[in-house]
């Protein structure tokens, strides 16, 4: 029979018997499902919230004039061109680059396209001229972007310097070609009446259809193809990408060429909608597009970003601008507001980055 005193173990440690009043072990709180946690932490969720807040604010401030069917159509149409530019900028920012020249490349592409139209029928030109003019715009943007990509990848010039130089050079060439004046008779009426003002099934503007299709195609390329995976890999760690066999230099040239190509597409959309090259009207396009992409969650340090986020980011300035116009805010203050939004977006990007590093 054991001689140990009750309440003791073999090593002499006291044994505490549970009592009816003693609380049991705490049960962990039910955690959110994995999909819910991912949704809550996704940047697109937060940017969607910001967009909804802006819509709610302007709707409350101007309930009779904001968020009407006409306003929704105008917002989508005005955002369409910047969305096309933003898709290309998303790729560039994911590879830790930047492109300050998109507005000037759009102008140069529009000018060269318009010059061909002027000498081949002008406003009364047929569909053959329209097609060739569009191809000239696309080719101009593609070649200019590829040149900038080569300077970044092969000549090792920082992308900020390359594209800042491209910003001035492209605009300067456009002004030399036109003498600084928007050419007259530069847009065929057929292009304006169909792509510019026409609507699919009489409801959806063709500009919106083009922007949506472009977004869908290159969104799938980014998420479902090897080209997209290589884009993320280079932005995250270019040296590691080289070690696993990715031709980083060639890929960078392709990315910048893609951005130029989409700027050329944007120029055709601009000509169709506005009927002019608007040489002096694109100085802040780069600011607007970069704002949209960063608002959408793309990191300026590379390796992160989505086309879906860019879609949301494009509509935030579009809604902001439309709301400020309805509230009779001067144009100058609109530019100030967009600049403030950009700075805030970059700050939040760095704040989220530091939070992830600490976590």
What descriptive keywords fit this protein?
single chain, mainly alpha, two-stranded antiparallel ribbon, 2 strands
Q: Secondary-structure map with pairings?
A:
Blueprint: H1 34-41, H2 43-61, H3 69-94, H4 102-118, H5 127-153, H6 159-178, H7 189-196, E1 199-200, E2 204-205, H8 206-224, H9 226-236, H10 238-243, H11 248-274, H12 285-295, H13 307-326, H14 331-358
Antiparallel strand pairs: 1-2
What does this structure look like?
There is one protein chain. This protein has 359 residues and is mainly α. The chain has one domain: Orthogonal Bundle (ABC transporter involved in vitamin B12 uptake, BtuC). It contains 14 helices and 2 strands; from the N terminus they run H-H-H-H-H-H-H-E-E-H-H-H-H-H-H-H. It has helices spanning 34-41, 43-61, 69-94, 102-118, 127-153, 159-178, 189-196, 206-224, 226-236, 238-243, 248-274, 285-295, 307-326, 331-358; strands at residues 199-200, 204-205. A two-stranded antiparallel ribbon has the order 1-2. Helix 3 (69-94) runs antiparallel to helix 11, helix 3 packs across helix 12 (285-295) and helix 9 (226-236) crosses helix 11. It is globular. The chain starts with 33 loop residues before the first helix and ends with a helix. 41% of the residues are buried. Residues 1-13 and 15-20 have low confidence and may be disordered.
What's the short story on this structure?
The protein has 359 residues and is an all-alpha fold. It has helices spanning 34-41, 43-61, 69-94, 102-118, 127-153, 159-178, 189-196, 206-224, 226-236, 238-243, 248-274, 285-295, 307-326, 331-358; strands at 199-200, 204-205. It holds the Pfam family BPD_transp_2.
């Amino acid at each position: 029979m054991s001689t140990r005193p009750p309440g003791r173990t073999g090593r002499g440690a006291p044994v505490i018997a549970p009592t009816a009043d003693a609380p049991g072990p705490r049960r962990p709180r039910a955690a959110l499902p994995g999909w819910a946690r991912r949704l809550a932490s996704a940047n697109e969720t937060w940017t969607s919230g910001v967009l909804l807040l802006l819509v709610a604010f302007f709707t409350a401030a101007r309930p009779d004039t904001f968020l009407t069917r006409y306003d929704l159509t105008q917002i989508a149409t005005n955002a369409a061109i910047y969305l096309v530019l933003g898709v290309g900028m998303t790729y560039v920012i994911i590879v830790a680059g930047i492109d300050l020249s998109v507005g000037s490349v759009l102008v140069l592409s529009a000018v060269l396209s318009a010059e061909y139209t002027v000498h081949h029928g002008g406003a009364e030109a047929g569909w053959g001229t329209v097609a060739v003019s569009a191809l000239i715009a696309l080719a101009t943007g593609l070649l200019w972007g590829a040149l900038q990509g080569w300077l970044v990848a092969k000549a090792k010039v920082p992308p900020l310097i390359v594209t800042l130089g491209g910003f001035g050079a492209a605009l300067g060439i456009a002004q030399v070609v036109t003498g600084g004046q928007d050419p007259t008779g530069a847009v065929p009426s057929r292009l304006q009446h169909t792509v510019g003002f026409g609507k699919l099934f009489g409801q959806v503007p063709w500009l919106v259809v083009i922007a949506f299709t472009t977004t869908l195609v290159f969104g799938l390329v980014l998420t479902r193809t090897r080209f997209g995976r290589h884009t993320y890999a280079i932005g995250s760690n270019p040296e590691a990408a080289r070690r696993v066999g990715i031709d980083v230099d060639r890929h960078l040239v392709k990315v910048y060429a893609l951005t130029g190509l989409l700027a050329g597409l944007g120029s055709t959309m601009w000509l169709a909608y506005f009927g002019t090259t608007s040489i002096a009207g694109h100085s802040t396009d780069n600011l607007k597009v970069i704002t949209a992409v960063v608002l959408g969650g793309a990191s300026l340090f590379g390796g992160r970003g989505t086309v879906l986020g860019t879609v949301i980011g494009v509509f935030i300035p579009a809604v902001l601008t439309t709301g400020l116009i309805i509230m009779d805010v001067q144009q100058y203050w609109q530019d100030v507001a967009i600049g403030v939004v950009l700075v805030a977006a970059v700050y939040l990007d760095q704040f989220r980055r530091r939070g992830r590093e600490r976590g």
